[in-house]
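Second attempt. The first submission of Dipeptidase had a stray character pasted in from the spreadsheet, which I only caught after the job came back as garbage. Lesson logged: always re-copy from the clean sequence file. Corrected sequence (559 aa) follows.
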Amino acid sequence: MKKNVLSLLGLFVLGLFAQPSALACTSIMVTKGATKDGSNMITYAADSHVLFGELYFYPAMTYPEGTMLDVIDWDTGKPLGQIPQVAQTYSVVGNMNEHQLAITESTFGGRKECQGQNDGIIDYGSLIYITLQRAKTAREAITIMGELVNTYGYYSSGESFSISDKNEVWYMELIGKGEGEKGAVWVARRVPNGYVAAHANQARIGKFPQDDKENCLYSADVIEFAKNKGWYKGKDKDFDFAEVYAPVDFGGARFCDARVWSIYNRLTDGMDKFTAYAEGKLEKDEATGFTTNKLPLWVKPSKKLSVQDVMELMRDHYEGTPLDMTQDAGAGAFDLPYRWRGLTWEYEGKEYFNERAISTQQTGFSLVAQSRASLPDPIGGILWFGVDDTYSTVYTPMYCGMTEVPETFEVGNGDMLTYSETSAFWIFNTVSNFAYLRYSDMIQDIREKQKELETKFVDYTAMIDKSASEMFEESPEKARAFVTDFSVTTANKMVMDWKKFGQQLIVKYMDGNVKKQTEKGQFERSEYGQCPSPNFPGYSEQWKKQVVEDTEDRLEVKE
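This time the job returned cleanly.
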């Protein structure tokens, strides 16, 4: 029989979960009633120390009867088995397909008894990309995802999924039934229009309306399975999915839900009452053992959001909160809001930890998937895509109707162990890793350049939308070719511009000094064309104080 290999899943080892609770991903769900332009948006930061950032692409295909699909575990590259291929698949760019359907995830792990079915064929990564090739809407995606894991078994641990199309946004949580069982139990809730939800490696769907099929879907045995296992003995109406299948602990609150708290805190007032929870201080109900001070599932933002506002929500180190990563000694002399792993560490017999923020150095890729019902599907969906650290990446528009991807983001253009001069991932990592050396200064330049480019791209897409829509009425094929050319050309040029920008940063900040510049940003030269003496900005007063306290009078200049 003919085979269709899910090729990109076998090209690299994702390795998100090399240790328990790797705390890998963050996702935000924004409904059209909460956005300025009436679009639905979901986000994704795929964080892993071994994930190479690249843009996956699956062309639309037709298959003869009997074709089989090889399923490869997204984390390890391990072949899991085969399933029958469908007759027709849809094109997919990254985590969005040509019908504006988008799916992202974060892993919550959950009960150990539910993790892993050795004979299961569908892992969470394959579940996303197979579904994107087969579904047109969020509701259809939820149905297909449930059918896939129940028919072929579920290989991964507990997952939260953000699922959006041009009309709806859904939040789904799913966990397997463990060894000796087949399939998974799950709940999916429609995010109310006008609201924003988020998840970050901790299950968050609690009690759910069991008689509202318009806004809540769930597996038939989600409650019965837990009761049969002895994990829940209460009334069906009081069943809490997260508390039963993935109860929160200190790490779930501080390392995971704290990211959600930070997002909500930036969107609306009143989140200060959940600060203790974000700090890992849990309050429990004596009767049920359930945590009582958890975050709300979703919030209504105080103002409507633009796509750039949503991009900015993905850029966060807890600034201005009690968890601010720039304010303790770990930030060093230049306010670096990053801590090299591991996540936890020991000192004099006690265990400590590093904060886990949304923006983190080990991001492979991140995105904002924007779906707009006012435009034809191939034009209405834009995947704003970036690689490396969300705080210093540039989100570049990739129309969901595109038929090829830019060379700079293409699968196979370098990998985690192979540097490529034309790879977006390597170019952005070169800039960000240099910036970590003198972060407080260099990040100002990076953020200015980032804003300049993203603002330009947002302006460009408004014009492309109009031209492509007019073209679509005459010829959908020409419109898709047009948005493809724009997406590819824009991305490739942006990456090369970023490479030049990185070279300018090296010139400016070499050896810990700062070259003098004119008001127009050009480097100053002496009257004879030479480099004048640079500025020596030195260190902050806080750093000087710490050094004096540590060394006492050892470094004091003596008369």
